[in-house]
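Technical annex B. To support the medicinal chemistry partners, we prepared a structural model of the target in complex with beta-D-glucopyranose, based solely on the information shown next.
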Amino acid sequence: MKWIYSVSLAASLVIQPALADDLFGPHPINEQARDAFVSDLLTKMTLDEKIGQLRLISVGPDNPKSAIRDMIQKGQVGAIFNTVTRSDIRAMQDQVMQLSRLKIPLFFAYDVVHGQRTIFPIPLGLAASWDLDAVSTVGRISACEAADDGLNMTWAPMVDVSREPRWGRGSEGFGEDTFLTGQMGSAMVKAMQGNSPADRYSLMTSVKHFALYGAVEGGRDYNTADMSPQRMFQDYLPPYKASLDAGSGGVMVALNAINGVPATADSWLLKDLLRDEWKFKGITISDHGAIKELLKHGVASDPQDAVRIALKSGVDMSMSDEYYSQYLPGLVKSGAVSMAEIDDAARHVLNVKYDMGLFNDPYSHLGPKESDPQDNNAESRLHRAEARDVARKSIVLLKNRLETLPLQKSGTIALVGPLADSQRDIMGSWSAAGVAKQSVTLLQGMRNATAGKATLLYAKGANISDHPGIQNFLNLYEKAVSVDTRTPQQLIDEAVEKARQADVVVAAVGEAQGMAHEASSRSELNIPASQKKLLQALKATGKPLVIVLMNGRPLTLVQEDQMADALLETWFSGTEGGNAIADVLFGDYNPSGKLPVTFPRNVGQIPLYYNHLPTGRPYNPTKPNKYTSHYYDTANGPLYPFGYGLSYTTFKVSPVKLSARTMARHGTLEASVTVTNNGARDGATVVQMYLNDPVASISRPVRELRGFKRIMLKAGESQTVTFKIDEDALKFWNQKMQHVAEPGKFNIMIGLDSVRTQDAQFDYL
Ligand code: BGC
């Protein structure tokens, strides 16, 4: 579905279907005109003014508004982040236009990752929808709301592939798969930037974190990534490339080192690869304070050295430190940095400002002052219906014994758990300008669904964690987690008493949003002990137990899987999360989400991902052999595989039909299956197509996702789904780092998850 946006009389954003196709597709910038304009501007700028353009300042205690006014007057700032209201942004842009010599407009950026005022599911949840239209809706609405707040740029999408569930930032990305992440990232870029980032309701994106941040050692945030070139190019780099090919104007440089070189100091990454090979023309921005951190990485001897290295490596703009302004003038004077290098970086900044349309109209995302919202968080500014719809699509049904779900809207239901009524947690991390008091908790959602029909009992049952250290950690920067001061036993007793009165128990457990965030690495992936004890006590009542998970990473759920009659993965589902989860619990929406990450049985199995390489001694569970690759102390393989998710109906997949048994060099091939909804309810599912190259010059993964399609089938209905395979889908980086498709047999596997598939074979000539 394509959309255009307009502002209604009530000043709220209204989404309308597109009137004509030619409204869509990026409008190309006239690069010649831009280059001429920027070259001319550069000739008028002093060195200090050029350096000023390279500085991105965060508004906050270190930089109060008065200090920023001063910097603006002196031309010492190029862009601002962490300001999110039209009035604040207008005031700063006014200062530029009134006080600065050259009146070069600022751009304004923010972390709009899964919504601005309306919060959608966290990106890991969006990935679980496998629905590119849903992701486009999120991108369009997020951009609209952010641009309506005066913003020009977002630090998103995050396309760091991660096979490391201990890393807290997996919640901000699209999971473990290269292809799915690339598709999601590019859909997000296209939706946010729209026809042009200069449009009133579009936002320029900056793809992050370039590169390989998702591969940090041991999942420890900010750590090192060490990787073979084959794995880097095959598995980790393609999503950045796909998002840049989709037109992203910005790239945020990662904080980690790659094979020993911090990304901020990596001229191979930022120049040879990004600019020369990938032809990226936009702007590179350091991550927060990353230039300073080159000292601690041990690659710069002093601040001047750090600045010299970062600039020469290709970091155009420095986020949130004063180093560029302090040291670049001296470095230019001594000749360590050339004027041409300063001009290059400044040119990239001015280019994106041009692309944002700021030289035409510095107020293009602000509109007239009289139109400023009276209340930034007015209900009328939210897009609740879309948020509810996307959230429902992101929910994954992991278990449903004896059709425990959907629940009846009758009798007595006990809802317990520390996440059942937490407005803050359901929004997830990086919730931009979203306001917790506007989010619908599960308790509220279930109340809405059952009002006048069923009795709903509620008890908190446990704190997120009883560990004071963890409670303090979660409340360090914001009072995010409220701690009930009753004893753990008192909390459990109250919950058990409610459970005893009920026909069914729903337990909302998992992680606080702060447990799946930046700087939230975990060494365990379990549900915290306080909540586990609650679940055990509930199980002991003998009542049917529905576990509703809220979390931002794969968890280890062996015990919960055993205890639960039904298990629902809801991630952090956003402003309308509670209504969306209730829709699924009561069968008003049939779940269709599929896992974008593998759920291991225990931490010791990590890394555990579906597209692993074969070994010389593969483990065969039906014929176990000691000298094969496996753990002897746990069942082999994941608890829930990649791509997995149940429905309230059942689907059957036919054998694969190929358009031919062979595929010619440079040719294509079509593979089809017919999917039938052979259950009693209408429902959607995701058909997934995997390829495997069984004999190649280097070992190739046992399967790799190469296509997917989300389909909706009425009960009894069938649909044929066809995937087109081209040479690109067969290619890989060989030992000599050539991107090749090698002739030979290929296996194709199509199914509704990564394990149970229909398989066929073809020859590539
Ligand atoms: C994060 C980035 C984020 C930036 C600005 C950094 O700490 O790593 O992802 O965009 O802060 O908030």
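Notes passed to the chemistry partners:
Residues 651-764 form a domain with the Immunoglobulin-like fold (CATH 2.60.40.10).
Residues 209 and 675 are 38 Å apart (CA to CA).
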